[in-house]
């Protein structure tokens, strides 16, 4: 059983939280992190619960809200951090940056700057699993906003007709940039759209990592055992702005709404659960927190120490066939 | 008409607001403009003029075509030009073809705005400069404003034009300030601007390359080389006469185009000149473009790739046979 | 009340039938009709029932199965026929051909060779109606195959969030070329997809023109009165091959299936209804049939007599602004 | 390897079948291939090799990218190249960029087949020749087979290539017959074919224009003009040396390209030559392309628009200064 236990889920959630917070600090200090960052803070339970249901050799595609996915899937932090800084030691050698993290060694097929573009790619990975006769599952992360893109529709239909092993996992944080779901989306629950593809559509509290994990596990098992795709919708909230470093206005969400969701911080909830269930006590959690803190600082140190890619890399052929294998 | 200084982005909004105020048929469709519609100058336009869309570019670009065919003059702002691919069929097969294919029963007065976010540390997905491909699509006009005044003037003309017009805004120029005439300051599509007179070499420069070319010309002037800088402003229609006149004088051509080199619009200009202006040409043509590579994220890599004043000056020297 | 009575519906159905049959004859004779034809035979009740619910100033977009739509909307036959022949007298001056018929004078905004492309255009026409403060409705015709295209999804969502006056009208003939609906589409009833957009989804017997008309009228009235869009699915069948003149294989539908549907020929059913209800007697129907026959022959004569466009037209500027207004 | 005659279309299928038989990682995704999968030679491949798709081009092109990133070598047949626009983002932003943007962790061995149905009385929506725009996208290879042997040989190479390769097939050549070597007859990407040796003028011709150019050369030969005809076969990579060598000999260049003229690949070739081969050039370059108009349906109009032997011969005469 490859499922992660609650302690490990908590650890990955904390890694995401601290990775995002730390990278925002570095960004605000100025200079070191170019371009926008789309933090996953608030989404940690959704992202980790989903990935906890996956095996290491299962696949995952992401989107612009990109840091949480590979971390949850088990990617090493240092190359991720170095990637944000555009360094040679980055997971993509500095070529991808925050929006295009990918770590194929843990099945992370890449985050995408184009909303909705990752869904068909996940379906293709699932097809690959079928053709090659493996039992790998592919999971596509996307937002409520992406559920209005044509690729959402085409992907769900394609996966459904061929009963491909895919989990479509919607991180519904209620907004696409400053646009509320109600303003842009003709259903209250994205999960309701599953009916258009004769697949199960399940909603889950996205702040509760165990609840997410259980729903995701069922979907993954269905997929793995030939039962076809599912649509899972985790209701969540982002604690930061859409993107930091871009000057996006911040007066589109009410203080009460933010307060309501902040009160259900997934990290706080997970910590409480660890304590309540006795899976981990206070000192153990404190040790774990300190460990994550060290990981983050190590990762940042690695990132800072890593060199920039050599300028000659800029002119590297755009073709893989021109490179040595 | 007096001229004050505005930024390029302010000039765009001034044109858009002006025309939306003047002509009730003009509407704006774009993602995430709910806040813009709710307060400030756009709110004064009243109901039903700004449509804050879902992330459905094919859908709302297609809507613009339908609206244009039925009496409106829609503007779509794609915000980032790399998103044009998602709506490509509606741009290329529908907006560009509808009028001609239906025997000119109706016109398609439709404006597509799309800013090019290259050089912004946005990595491969967001950094495209896709205008060359649209110039290969008959029925589309393509504009590339390089100054605040042109950002306003070309947008005014585009909105008033009866054909689909694609305006590729240069994100690197958003903060650029310059004189912008007040009021109706439309600049006709198809007329180039001579940004600098010169007699030794012609530099045709597109978008932010216009500024680079002017800086290159200054550097060249210090060496006694007198460069002429031409900003075509629109690629379709293209003011070929302005370019030919200049080459008749200089005999030498450098083209600075931030697009990838292969099948860039610089290629089209070079081809036109090699066909139509051959007798005047006294040296090989040089293109200064972005190399054919996927744009890397790392600033250590990205910022080395685009044309700049040094590369343009070096190309000018090379066609003049000086070092 | 602009609704067409049953006699007029029958007339338009017959026009479509005979227009298609006659154009196929001309095509088979060779030479005069270049390119493929996608006949509407079998779909007449669906197409006419839908258009009968529209006013002349309402709008309609179509697809590649293109002859029925403008005829049902009331377009004159002669310019349509001339268009198939590529003649100057064609409704598009010979520039569009069979796949791009359009007659703006009757609200026909154009047939499309790109599957799914007409849906957003209809939604845009409906937006235009809202902005200009008219009460015009827009109807988009599309097939079961098109319901798997991304534009279907984006269009339904856009129309739904803004409650635009649109009717999405699916002519479900069970196939996209030789691909059965079951093989390509993850729902049994396209109408079920309406749930993903919180709009009504209605199924109707597409061979029964009155049933179609009634369902369409309700959808049109809802749209006109501000109730927003609907999805209507008419179950129908095509009596010909997907496209004639293209050599498409024909062994993908069983003889029984074809027989079953042929037995419910919409023309036969409409004729029987006219007789049964006494709306028209045998001689009256015969007169009507003869009249349509004359219309078709007149249209064909016009088409044949019309000249080809002058070759100079080929080099006409692609820009409307270059033409005199 | 002996050569028999096959049609262009038969040659495509021979290559596809050969490679699908040889390499179990190769799969085919296309609309409406259910019957093809169920019987005949493709059926012998067994389960899960042919995927008859819904009308969801973005979806299944994106699937091909996902499959390529995870160990397969998918072929997508779009059947008609005008449908590429619907899938444009997946082609341009995903397939072309994924390998480089992810730091070359994986390759994207993906083949996109798309036949160009111009000259087929199919009207504006179906008649595009969209290859020029894809040559402006770094990361995509672009092939244009003009003979049955090349249709086979280039497809074999494309399937074996580790990068996305777009093959634009010319529908006008489907029935063309010609010798095609049996078995493994791969033709490397990036190597031009000299279709006719000559010393007076170089004609670079693309797709069906190769045949037109050869007919033009015959007509020219009757007037004592000796034309060299070059078929680049792939536009990316482009065999510039073959063209430069020829111009070094002839000093004169005509380019015949069925795409619309503005920002065609002919423009790129002209630009390359005006940059790199200037010293050898002794006359203006001439492009013979399709004019920049929406393709009209009427055969009275459509068939006048495309390049043909007469237009090519006239262009050759004009660069030679003869009538
Ligand atoms: C095709 C496309 N259109 C628009 C954008 C700009 N954009 C980036 S993120 C975003 C909002 C996405 O919202 P959602 O899918 O809900 O994800 P969230 O940011 O809320 O996690 C938009 C509009 C884009 N990247 N791609
Ligand atoms: C985007 C696109 N993909 C593929 C095609 C080719 N094609 C033309 S009609 C058709 C089938 C359409 O099926 P459906 O929507 O059910 O309409 P029907 O022909 O059955 O009336 C296909 C695949 C096309 N024209 N456009
Ligand atoms: Mg969201
Ligand atoms: Mg159908």
Compact description:
The complex is a heterotetramer, with two copies of chain A (325 residues) and two copies of chain B (323 residues). By secondary structure, chain A is α/β, with parallel strands linked by helices.
What report would you give on this structure?
The complex is a heterotetramer, with two copies of chain A (about 325 residues) and two copies of chain B (about 325 residues). Chain A has about 325 residues and is an alpha/beta fold. Chain A is about 40% helix and about 10% strand. Chain A has a five-stranded parallel sheet with strand order 1-2-3-7-6, sandwiched between helices. In chain A, strands 4-5 form a two-stranded antiparallel ribbon. In chain A, strand 2, helix 6 and strand 3 (about 165-170) form a beta-alpha-beta unit. The longest helix of chain A has 24 residues, at about 5-30. Chains in contact: A-B, A-C, A-D, B-C, B-D, C-D. The interface between A and C is medium-sized, with 24 and 24 residues. The structure holds thiamine diphosphate (2 copies) and magnesium ion (2 copies). One thiamine diphosphate sits at the interface of chains C and D.
Residues in helix, % of chain B:
25-40%
Strand-pairing-aware structural class of chain B: alpha/beta
- The assigned structural class of chain A equals alpha/beta
Name the overall outline of chain A.
Answer: globular
Proportion in β-strands of chain A: 5-15%
Mean model confidence by pLDDT of chain B: 97
Output the radius of gyration of chain A: 19 Å
Task: Outline the fold blueprint.
The complex is a heterotetramer, with 2 copies of chain A (325 residues) and 2 copies of chain B (323 residues).
Chain A: H1 6-29, H2 44-52, E1 59-61, H3 68-73, H4 77-84, H5 118-132, E2 138-143, H6 150-161, E3 166-172, E4 175-176, E5 179-180, H7 181-184, E6 201-205, H8 209-224, E7 230-235, H9 255-262, H10 266-277, H11 282-305
Parallel strand pairs in A: 1-2, 2-3, 3-7, 6-7
Antiparallel strand pairs in A: 4-5
Helix pairs in contact in A: 1-2, 1-10, 1-11, 2-8, 4-11, 5-6
Chain B: E1 3-7, H1 8-22, E2 26-31, H2 34-38, E3 50-53, H3 57-69, E4 73-77, H4 88-95, H5 98-101, E5 111-116, H6 123-126, H7 131-134, E6 141-143, H8 148-160, E7 165-170, E8 177-181, E9 193-196, E10 201-205, H9 209-222, E11 227-231, E12 234-236, H10 240-250, E13 253-260, H11 265-276, E14 286-290, H12 299-302, H13 309-319
Parallel strand pairs in B: 2-3, 2-4, 4-5, 5-7, 6-7, 10-11, 10-13, 13-14
Antiparallel strand pairs in B: 1-8, 6-12, 9-11
Helix pairs in contact in B: 1-8, 3-4, 9-13
Bound molecules: thiamine diphosphate (2 copies) and magnesium ion (2 copies).
Residues 143-145, 173, 175-176 of chain A line the site of one magnesium ion.
């Amino acid at each position: 059983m490859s499922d992660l236990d609650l302690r490990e889920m908590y650890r990955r959630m904390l890694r995401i939280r601290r990775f995002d917070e730390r990278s925002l600090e570095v960004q605000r200090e100025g200079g070191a992190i170019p371009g926008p960052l789309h933090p996953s803070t608030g989404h940690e339970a959704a992202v980790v619960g989903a990935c906890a249901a996956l095996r290491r050799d299962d696949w995952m595609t992401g989107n612009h809200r990109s840091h949480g996915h590979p971390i949850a899937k088990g990617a090493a932090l240092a190359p991720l951090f170095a990637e944000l800084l555009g360094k040679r030691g980055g997971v993509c050698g500095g070529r991808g940056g925050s929006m295009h993290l990918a770590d194929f060694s843990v099945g992370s097929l890449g985050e995408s700057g184009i909303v909705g573009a990752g869904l068909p790619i996940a379906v293709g990975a699932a097809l690959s699993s079928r053709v090659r006769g493996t039992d790998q599952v592919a999971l596509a992360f996307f937002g409520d906003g992406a559920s209005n893109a044509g690729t959402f529709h085409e992907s769900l239909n394609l996966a459904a007709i061929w009963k491909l092993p895919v989990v479509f996992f919607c991180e519904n944080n209620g907004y696409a940039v400053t646009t509320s779901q109600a303003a842009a989306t003709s259903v209250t629950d994205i999960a309701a759209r599953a009916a258009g593809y004769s697949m199960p559509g399940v909603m889950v509290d996205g702040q509760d990592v165990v609840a997410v994990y259980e729903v995701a596990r069922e979907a993954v098992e269905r997929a793995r055992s030939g039962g076809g795709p599912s649509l899972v919708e985790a209701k969540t909230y982002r604690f930061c702005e859409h993107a930091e470093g871009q000057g996006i206005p911040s007066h589109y969400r009410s203080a009460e709404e933010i307060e309501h969701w902040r009160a259900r911080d997934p990290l706080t909830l997970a910590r409480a659960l660890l304590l309540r269930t006795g899976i981990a006590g206070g000192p153990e959690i404190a040790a774990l927190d300190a460990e994550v803190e060290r990981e983050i600082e190590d990762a940042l140190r690695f990132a800072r120490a890593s060199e920039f890619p050599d300028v000659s890399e800029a002119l590297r052929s755009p073709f893989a066939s021109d490179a040595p294998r | 008409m007096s001229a004050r200084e505005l930024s390029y982005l302010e000039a765009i909004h001034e044109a858009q607001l002006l025309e939306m105020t003047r002509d009730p048929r003009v509407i704006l469709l774009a993602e995430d403009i709910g806040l813009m519609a709710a307060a400030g100058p756009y709110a004064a336009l009243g109901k039903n003029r700004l449509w804050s869309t879902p992330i459905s570019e094919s859908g709302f670009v297609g809507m613009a075509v339908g609206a244009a065919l039925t009496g409106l003059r829609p503007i779509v702002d794609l915000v980032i030009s790399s998103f044009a691919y998602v709506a490509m069929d509606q741009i290329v097969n529908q907006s560009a073809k509808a009028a001609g294919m239906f025997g000119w029963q109706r016109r398609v007065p439709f404006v597509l705005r799309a800013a090019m976010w290259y050089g912004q540390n946005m990595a491969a997905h967001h950094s495209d400069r896709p205008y060359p491909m649209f110039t290969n699509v008959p029925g589309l006009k393509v504009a590339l404003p390089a100054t605040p005044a042109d950002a306003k003037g070309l947008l005014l003309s585009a909105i008033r034009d009866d054909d689909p017009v694609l305006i590729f805004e240069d994100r690197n120029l958003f903060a650029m300030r310059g004189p912008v005439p007040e009021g109706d300051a439309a600049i006709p599509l198809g007329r180039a601007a001579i940004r600098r007179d010169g007699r030794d070499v012609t530099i045709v420069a597109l978008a932010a390359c216009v500024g680079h070319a002017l800086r290159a010309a200054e550097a060249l002037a210090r060496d006694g080389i007198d460069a002429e800088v031409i900003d075509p402003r629109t690629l379709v229609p293209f003011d070929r006469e302005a370019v030919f006149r200049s080459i008749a004088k200089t005999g030498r051509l450098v083209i600075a185009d931030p697009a990838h080199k292969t099948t860039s619009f610089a290629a089209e200009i070079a081809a036109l000149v090699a066909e139509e202006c051959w007798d005047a040409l006294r040296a090989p043509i040089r293109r200064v473009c972005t190399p054919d590579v996927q744009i890397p994220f790392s600033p250590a890599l990205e910022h080395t790739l685009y044309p700049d004043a040094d590369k343009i000056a070096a190309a000018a020297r090379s066609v003049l046979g000086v070092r």
